[in-house]
């Protein structure tokens, strides 16, 4: 985890922003990273999470993210676990961080047997960016500017603000 600048919590984010829309924009922008990460055998990912092998998990996440995002913009948050339930409901949860420009997002990637999800835990804004200036469109622009290449059209569902996510 990197040290943060002076920040202001964009919160309570859940109270006045549509958090699901923010999660969807984030998910759309990291689909290619997730796809690359999922090329790894799921048993290896589960083993690393079960045994708290954070260095190994970090290497896998870093190698997937560096193909699509600038520098250390998208990184592993050094927390992973297997959420045990019924066998068909088991999932692996990874804590992740997105840090670019004036926005820091802490979120979880949830890998289930039949689904993959994104859950935003917290959004921090640099003191120079006021909460009133932070919107879904500005979040999409920050994510877009952090990418090395434009988001592939196949990863842009109609609900993902196509005009702002593209370069």
Summarize the structure.
With 167 residues, this protein is an alpha+beta fold. It has helices at 13-16, 19-37, 42-50, 54-65, 136-146, 162-165, and strands at 7-9, 74-83, 91-100, 103-112, 116-126. A five-stranded antiparallel sheet has the order 1-5-4-3-2.
Describe this structure in words.
- The chain has 167 residues and is α+β, with helices and mostly antiparallel strands.
- It has one domain (7-161).
- The chain has helices at residues 13-16, 19-37, 42-50, 54-65, 136-146, 162-165, and strands at residues 7-9, 74-83, 91-100, 103-112, 116-126.
- Strands 1-5-4-3-2 form a five-stranded antiparallel beta sheet.
- A hairpin with a 3-residue loop joins strand 4 and strand 5 (116-126).
- The model has no long low-confidence stretch (mean pLDDT 84).
């Amino acid at each position: 985890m990197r040290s943060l600048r002076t920040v202001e919590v964009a919160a309570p984010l859940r109270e006045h922003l549509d958090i699901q829309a923010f999660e969807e924009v984030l998910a759309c922008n990291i689909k290619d990273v997730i796809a690359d990460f999922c090329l790894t055998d799921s048993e290896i990912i589960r083993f690393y999470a079960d045994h708290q092998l954070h260095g190994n998990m970090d290497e896998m996440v870093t190698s997937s993210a560096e193909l699509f995002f600038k520098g250390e913009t998208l990184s592993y948050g050094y927390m992973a676990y297997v959420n045990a339930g019924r066998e068909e409901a088991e999932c692996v949860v990874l804590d992740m961080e997105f840090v670019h420009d004036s926005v820091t997002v802490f979120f979880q990637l949830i890998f289930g047997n039949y689904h993959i999800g994104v859950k935003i835990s917290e959004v921090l804004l640099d003191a120079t960016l006021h909460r009133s200036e932070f919107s879904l469109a500005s979040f999409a622009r920050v994510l877009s500017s952090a990418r090395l290449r434009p988001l592939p059209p196949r990863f842009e569902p109609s609900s993902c603000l196509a005009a702002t996510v593209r370069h």
